[in-house]
Specification:
The structure is a homodimer of 455-residue chains.
Chain A: E1 6-7, E2 17-19, H1 43-46, H2 52-59, E3 64-66, H3 69-75, E4 83-85, H4 87-93, E5 98-103, H5 114-126, E6 131-136, H6 140-152, E7 155-161, H7 162-167, H8 169-177, E8 181-185, H9 191-199, H10 207-219, E9 224-226, H11 233-239, H12 241-252, E10 259-263, H13 268-282, E11 288-294, H14 299-302, E12 305-309, E13 318-322, H15 345-352, E14 357-361, H16 363-377, H17 385-402, E15 407-412, H18 421-428, H19 438-445
Helix pairs in contact in A: 3-5, 4-16, 5-6, 5-11, 6-8, 11-13, 12-13, 16-17
Chain lengths: 455, 455
Amino acid sequence: MGTPTRIILREDEIPTQWYNIQPDLPNPLQPPLHPETGEPIGPEELAPIFPMNLIEQEVSQQRWIDIPGPVLEKLATYRPTPLQRAKALEEALGTPAKIYYKNEGVSPPGSHKPNTAIAQAYYNKEFGIKRLTTETGAGQWGSALAMACSLFGLECKVFMVRISFDQKPLRKLMMQAWNADCVASPSNETEIGRRILAEKPDTPGSLGIAISEAIEDCVRSDDTRYSLGSVLNHVMLHQTVIGLEAKRQLEMVGDYPDVVIGCAGGGSNFAGLSFPFLYDKINGRQVEVVATEPTACPTLTRGPFTYDFGDTGMTTPLLPMYTLGHDFVPPPIHAGGLRYHGMAPLVSRLVRDGLVEPRALHQNDCYESAVLFARTEGFICAPETSHAIATAIHEARRAKEEGKEKTILLNWSGHGLMDLSGYEAFFRGDLVDLALPEEDLRESLKGVEDLPKPK
Amino acid sequence: MGTPTRIILREDEIPTQWYNIQPDLPNPLQPPLHPETGEPIGPEELAPIFPMNLIEQEVSQQRWIDIPGPVLEKLATYRPTPLQRAKALEEALGTPAKIYYKNEGVSPPGSHKPNTAIAQAYYNKEFGIKRLTTETGAGQWGSALAMACSLFGLECKVFMVRISFDQKPLRKLMMQAWNADCVASPSNETEIGRRILAEKPDTPGSLGIAISEAIEDCVRSDDTRYSLGSVLNHVMLHQTVIGLEAKRQLEMVGDYPDVVIGCAGGGSNFAGLSFPFLYDKINGRQVEVVATEPTACPTLTRGPFTYDFGDTGMTTPLLPMYTLGHDFVPPPIHAGGLRYHGMAPLVSRLVRDGLVEPRALHQNDCYESAVLFARTEGFICAPETSHAIATAIHEARRAKEEGKEKTILLNWSGHGLMDLSGYEAFFRGDLVDLALPEEDLRESLKGVEDLPKPK
C-alpha cells in the first residue's frame, strides 16, 4: 500500500501530559485586568466563576502538566485521533507537497472541543461542583460540554444564541441526548435575559448576551461554575494533545512539517495543534505557523493588540489580545466558530511576537476548498475547518509553482455533517464574500480606545 | 489505564481478503429465479444491471477473495475502525459482562455502508462503467455511494424516497457535496416515475418505486449500472472486513465473544460483523449469533422462508429469503434502514439452519438503550444501531442476574447525528410502540402464496 494514508497511535500512546507554552514565551503574558480598578485580577476574584484547580492551571508556569487518569480514560473514547495523509487531494492538485491532516472529527460530537470539555468537567467535579453553565453559538461547544458533563455525572445548562437555536434544532436534540438543558438566549431564566426580552422580544440574541446569561446563572449558586470553550489559557493547554500526538505520528513516518496551519476563532484548535511545534520554533527549529481567519472577522490581520473585554456585555476581565472591539457584530458567515471579536491572549502574544503568521480568507475560497477536499478525501469538513484546508491548498499550489517539496500539516478540527447549510449557499452560488469595511472597523474600535494598552 | 478502552489496528492490519461464507454453508444457497420462467437466473441476464466482475463475486464459491489494492487504499481513509470496550455502560448496568462495540461510525458518511460502496464503485470503474444509479430511503446508502463514486471519479444518480427527501434536506446536501445528483422519487426522469406522479401527484414515494426508477435509469445506458447497498451476496462479502478486524482486535486482548449481535434490515452490517464468527461456529466453536429487528418489521421472527421479489415493483429476480411479502408497507418507525420486507438470502439461510437467532424489539426499548449508551459512552447511535445496543444490554442484564461473566460483541453500525428526530419523539414521549398486527401480516403475505418455495 506504499506510504501510509492513516498514521495511527494505540491507546497507550495518548500523551500523558499537556504542554503549557507559558514558560517558553519570549515575552511573558500580561495579566487580565479588573475593568474598574485597572489592577491585575487575583485568583480569588475568579473563584465564583471557575473552580480553583482550573484557575491555578490558568496561571501555571509549569511546562508539562500531568493529565489526570480519569481524563485520559474519557479521552480514550476517541483519542488518539488519526493523522491522515491527503494523497488523493495532493494528486488532484498535482503538487509535490505532502499534506497531512489531524482528524479531530472522530470525537462523539464531531470536533476537537471535547478535549477541553472533558478536562473541565473533571476538574469541576473534583472541586465538588455539581453543575456547569455555558453559552454556545453554532452549537459545537455546547454539545461537547453536554457530553463531558454527562460522562462525569454533572448537570449542564447551555444558553444557545436564539437565531442558531431556531435554525439548528438538531443541536438542541444532541445536547438533550446527553442530558443537558439547552435554552434559547436571551431566556426568561436570568435578569439580563428578561430585561432584553422586555425591550426587544424579537431579538436574534448574540454570543455576548448568552455569555452574560451563563455567568449570571453560574454566580447565583455555590455548586455551579461557568465553562468556556476557547480563549483562556487552560483551554489552549487542554488542546495540546492534538499537536503532541501529531508530532509523534509524523515521527513515525520520519517527517516534520514545513508549515503548520489551523483556523482561529477564539484560538483553541489552532493552539492545540501548533503550540507543540511552536516549542520547537522558539528553540530554533525552522517551521512556519499560520493562523487563518475569515476576511469577515479579521481579528488577527486587522485588529489592534490591546486590552479588551471578552464579551459584548463587558462583564469579563480585560484581556490583552488582538480584537475588533467588543461591540463588533460579525456578519452572518457560515463559520460560526470564527465569528468572535477577540482572540486567545496566548495566540495573540505569539502573533505579536512574530512567531505566528495570520492570514485572512474569503468564504467562497474556503467552501471551494472544502468541496475539493470532500470529493477527493471523502470527509466533509466544518465551515471553520475549511479555512485551514484552503490555506493548505494555497501552500500546496505554491509548492507546485516553485517546484519544491514541502510538508504541510493542518488541523481538521471537525466534520460539517450538522452544518451543511453553508454548502447549500455555496452550491446555489449566493454565498457572499464579505470583507470588513474600513469604516465599520473604525466604528467598532471606538469601544477600546480608552482601555489600557498592554506592553 | 488498566484494560484498554479502544483496541486499535494500524493501517497495515486492514484485512487483505474478504471472507465468503458460501462454501461453508451447511446447506447451499438456492439460486435466484426468473419470475416468469421460474428457472435459475444466469449471469448474462444480470449483465445489464451489474458489471460481470461483481456478478462473478455474487456466485463465487471461493472462501477467501483478495481485496484489490485501490479498494484497500480508499478503505484506509477510515479503516481499520476501532473496537471499543463500553466500560462506562458496563458500570452503569452493574454487569459482570464485557461489552465491546465495533465503531463503524467513523467513516466519512458515518456508517458501515462505504465498505461495499467503495468496492462496488471500484469494480464498476474497472469494468468500464461511467455512472451508477441507486435508490436510498433515509439516505445512509445514497450518501455512501455518492462518496465512493466521487473517490473513483464516477457519476452517481440517487433516487431518494420523496418523504425522506423532504424531511431530511441535509442528506441531499451531503450527496451534492460528493458531486452526486439526488432527486426525489417518484421523479419525472423515468417512465414509471412519470406514470405514478400522473396518478398520484402527492405520493410520499417508497423504496420499491425508487428501486424501479434506479433500474430503469440504469438499463437505458450502456455505460451505467445499478448498485445495491444490502441483500446481495457480494454486499455481505464486502462487509466482512468488520468482523475480520473485530476478531483480530479481540485476539489482541485475549478475548472471544460469547454472543455476537447486529441489527438486520437487509442484512449487511449484521453479516459483516457475524460471518467471520459464524465460520468458527460452523467449525464447532461455541458462539451465539443474534440478529435483531424491529417488532414493526419482523421479517426474521414472523415472516415465512420463501421465494419473493426484492422490490415492491416486482422487477427483481425471486430471492430465497425470509419475507413479509413484497407488498408489505412498514409503519413509519425511525430506524429507516430496518424497514425492508425481505432479508439477505445468506442471512436467511443461516437463520433457517439455526445458526443465527433472530429477535424482535420495540422501538421505545431501543431508544432508551441508545440514550443510556450516549450518556455513558458518549457516542450517539443511529436508530438502526440502537437495536443492537438494546440486545446487548439485555444480555448484560441477564449476565448480572445469573452472576455470570460473558463477552458481548455488537456492531455499532453508524452514528445518529443526522437522524436525531427519532430521539426527539422519544424525549417527547410520543414514540409509538408498533408491533405488526397478525391480520396485516396475513394480508401482505398473500402476494407470496403462489411463488415458488425453496427447499
